[in-house]
Design goal:
alpha/beta, disordered N terminus, eight-stranded parallel barrel, 16% strand, globular, TIM Barrel, 10 helices, single chain
């Protein structure tokens, strides 16, 4: 059965957040680049704009960019290669309705003033479609390149998060380890709704109670359904204990969608090789435990990408849009 929380409605933030996260429902998005590149860390970015536009036309609720400053060999994935904020600006002008997400900006590697300015700009030019995931980072190799201490990423994350929140205020005045903005100046533009939706990824080196009390949602890596159910239930309890409204949960999922619609699931990196009927069953099980959005990643998909997108839209999306 669907897990129940004390507060059922999610507090509305902006167009993107409100359309993607709906209580007791599950929506589907796609991780950019929307292409298959299983053998190498760097995608071709072939037809990248056209595929995002196709995703919007087919009815997917969001596309998700990643923040990968360096192509780190041990990580094995360069993401979309383009800077996420530059790319957000491009996609904002190439689309009209689909939510534009980032999963996730590595806060300790950037100054929060720059993040706040870039994110608010992307939110405004997209008419409120930005969803900003934030994380502490899990690639130690990047920190020396920026002369930053990896061991301090948890503290830096928390300070950056607070700084970005304050930048939505008019003429904010406060002291922070990143700087001390004063009330005689202001940062523009402001987010469309007056607030950026900030989703925390994983633990981000923070206490679980802090995450429950601060994020506008939680991004989790996929796990066994019983384990994930327990984790989500405990988090929902923590959120309720703070007196805040319920907060949404999302997962990424790598898939290799095979032609046989009943092919049983086989594990791949952070995901599954399976038929579409088994994928439907998997997603329904996630919906039942309180997951509100799944971002599908087609990096390991062997079938033609456009064909796969149309199959997903025709045979799967109707089950999650009622």
């Amino acid at each position: 059965m669907l897990q129940k929380t004390k507060h059922q409605a999610f507090q509305p933030i902006n167009q993107g957040y409100n359309s993607v996260f709906q209580p007791q429902k599950l929506t589907l998005g796609l991780v950019v680049p929307i292409e298959s590149y299983p053998q190498a860390p760097i995608p071709t970015m072939t037809q990248h704009r056209e595929r995002v536009q196709l995703a919007e036309k087919l009815g997917f609720s969001a596309v998700w960019l990643r923040d990968v400053p360096f192509n780190v060999p041990s990580f094995g994935d360069a993401g979309q290669t383009y800077d996420p904020f530059v790319y957000l600006g491009l996609l904002a002008g190439q689309t009209e309705q689909i939510a534009l997400g980032v999963a996730s900006i590595i806060l300790p590697l950037r100054h929060p003033a720059h993040v706040a300015k870039a994110a608010a700009s992307a939110d405004v030019v997209s008419n409120g479609r930005l969803i900003l995931g934030v994380a502490s980072g899990d690639r130690p190799e990047e920190y020396p390149a920026l002369n930053l201490p990896y061991i301090e990423r948890g503290t830096r994350f928390r300070e950056s998060f607070d700084y970005i929140r304050r930048m939505s205020e008019d003429a904010a005045s406060f002291e922070n380890s990143y700087g001390s903005p004063h009330g005689s100046m202001d940062m523009l533009p402001k987010p469309v709704s007056g607030k950026l939706p900030l989703l925390i990824t994983g633990g981000s080196q923070q206490d679980p109670d802090w995450i429950a009390g601060h994020g506008d949602g939680w991004m989790l890596y996929p796990r066994n359904v019983s384990v994930q159910s327990q984790i989500i239930s405990e988090w929902q309890t923590r959120v309720a204990a703070t007196g805040r409204p319920a907060q949404p949960v999302m997962e990424p999922l790598y898939i290799d969608l095979v032609e046989d619609e009943n092919s049983p699931p086989q594990p791949i990196h952070l995901g599954l090789r399976l038929g579409i009927n088994q994928l439907r069953t998997y997603l329904k099980s996630r919906q039942e435990i309180g997951v509100n959005h799944v971002a599908l990643n087609l990096r390991f998909n062997k079938a033609d990408i456009e064909t796969t997108l149309k199959r997903l839209a025709t045979e799967l999306l109707p089950d999650f849009t009622e």
